[in-house]
Amino acid sequence: MEEYGSYNWNQQGNEPQNNTPMEPKKQPGKRNGNGARWAKKIGAVALSAVLFGGVAGGVFTGVTYATGATAKAQSTQTDSSKQETTKTTLQTTTSSGSTGSSASGQSLDVSSIAKNAMPSIVAITNKSVQEVQDYFSMFSRGSGTQEQEVESQGSGIIIGQNDSELLIATNNHVVEDADTLSVCFVDDQAYEATVKGTDADNDLAVIAVKLSDISDDTMSQIKIAEIGDSDQLQVGEQVVAIGNALGYGQSVTTGIVSAVNRQLEDSDSENGFIQTDAAINPGNSGGALLNMQGQVIGINSAKLASTEVEGMGYAIPVSTASPIFEDLMNRQTRTKVSSDQAAALGIKGQTVDSSIAEAYGIPQGVYVAEVEKGSAAEKAGITSGSVITKFDGTSVKSMDDLKSQLEYYAAGETVDLVVKIADNGSYVEKSLTITLDKADTSTTVQNGQQGQNQPGASGQDGNLQGSILR
Fold it and tell me: Comparing 39-48, 244-253, 351-360, 455-464, which segment has the lowest mean pLDDT?
């Protein structure tokens, strides 16, 4: 408006004056001339307005574009920062070649979910040596046993990668007591794996495969799974389960979420589970339960399934598993130490299983029946009658658990223990630090002496299977 007024003012001030008298008959011609001049003036005003509007519109568009571009750049930087943060904890982003639509929130069909998820799912083979009853002992007195190699099958999910390892999530019961572990990827190539860390209470574990062992061809065909949000699950929502069912190879089943936060009496975990009617069979344990965006929202567990009832499978919610996996992923990867480095605690212990724990009110773990004088245990403050429940952050459920863990630690290493000590009929938890003794490899591990009574709060020996750790 300011420019428009200035234009009129200049127009009136510069208007030429005609001093020649005009005859009446010329008046119509003058009107025509004035009309033409006025038409030109009006046209000029209109053109100026158009030009002014165009320039203003261009400036506005430019500002809007620049502002939007800046906001977009800032948003991209923020998203990039979030992804980088995720990768340093739990690597959950899909590979660049993914064709999934989870980012847009669109549902996929089951075949698309299976195709996208298969490169993230692995088959796990656990080989262990166990003592079994000798067949011929059944026909004679005595109860002879012999060692036999046992093989079991399970599943896993690729959840991350560090500088030297590919990290795979699974159930603890899939990898426990393993002498050797192997992982088979989507291209049917198998590689040796080691246990990174376990959480027996929640039946979770992370195992690792060395990147240097994996071929470039295999690396090009596998990817890290995308983790979803199990807290958003609704009853009736469709889900897909993938795993190494019965050890035959990866298979796919589908169903719905039957219940969320389901509490199970047979589980040691205090957290709830996802119940589904998607078939979860032996071998599926450690595999993925996915939503219809192809994201992992649960870790399947065939161990929790009932053999008497059909259509009731269970999975550990990923919201429960994620922080545990993040902790296990960052632990030191250990291999079994040589016999000349073998370590010992210096105790005589006995297993307190769940049935004895429930019957006598004793914490589940390793009951310390005797502490050797001058041993690492005595120096650390472990006393007879206490119960060892954790070793270096890992739950201890039995003497076998404790012995298995000791195989990965060398004499002289310092380790944190959690023990529960009898105190007026109850048990108080205490954390201790122990520097491991050197094991006497010439001494054979023996069974603990059996007594007539179960161990109680007073610390007396009981009728439990035990061994001397030396």
Answer: 455-464
